[in-house]
Amino acid sequence: MSHTKAQKQYRLAIVVLMFAFVFSSTYAQTQQDDNNAQLREKAFSLLESVAGQLNTLQSGENRARLGANIVDSLWKHDEKRARALLLLVQDDLNAGLDIKKRVQQTDADEYTFMVFSKLRVDTTERVAKYDSEAALAFLQATAPRSEKPLAEFVVQNERELELRLANQIAASNPDAALKVARKSLDQGFSSDLVVLLMQLNRKYKEQALILYKEIVSKLKDADFTSNWEVSNFVETLAQFKPPAADPATYRELVSLLTSSALAKGCANKMSEEDERVRLLPVGYSARSPNANDRSTRFQASAMGAGGRAARAVRR
Known about the structure:
Blueprint lengths: L2 H29 L5 H16 L7 H15 L4 H19 L9 H22 L3 H10 L10 H18 L4 H14 L3 H13 L1 H15 L8 H10 L9 H17 L30 H10 L2 H9 L1
């Protein structure tokens, strides 16, 4: 690449960066005054002109980063153009995130992967301000591809972001939200799943019931006694009770909790020092005649407050 061409690309990058910083404030000011409509149009024309020159940049990272800035600034004025530009950003991100073809991955490759991963998340959150479904589609279309396992925090952050987007689209596209929830459930238990379940249950009982049943079904094979993620999840889920929750599925959950608690030895005789004493109804103690009766204790811990049963299990 010639020195002159490099200078042109550098100047373009500077122009776009400067424009990205000042455009939002300029647009907000001019939008308040109809007399400045002509100035506003000129500003958008400049923005679109700069967008058309992005392909002169050699760096995929620069193209994607500057393109994402322009998408954010252009969306309200020309959504069709912004969406088209978002596809170009998507292509650059996919190229940057695709390191599986490299035989030997260097530290530089790892750094590049992390930079593009962060840019991907930032772009998704920008698009989500305007269209949550488009943001979710963009996130899924730019899923990282690597032969090496992704870092745990990367996987967790992506999962949380997907669930947040699903929460936003649940009111308009419950089937898409349910699809995301199922994918997340396959990866494990997250309290954000319960939030999404409650969101679906407000308007779409059918999808909510499907998700609720699948969650309870998966809990049958979960480890309540040593997995704190599962225990905390169950404690949150148990707060979702009838009439909001499906009564039959809720009874199934309570039965599961009770069985697990019994298997853990929660029906054994307690001493006053036993931590399980705090699960007893008001007025009971370890010395009360019925304190060690299964039905008394588990009606209080499971049916009365499912979360307490969950705590009893992990005890």
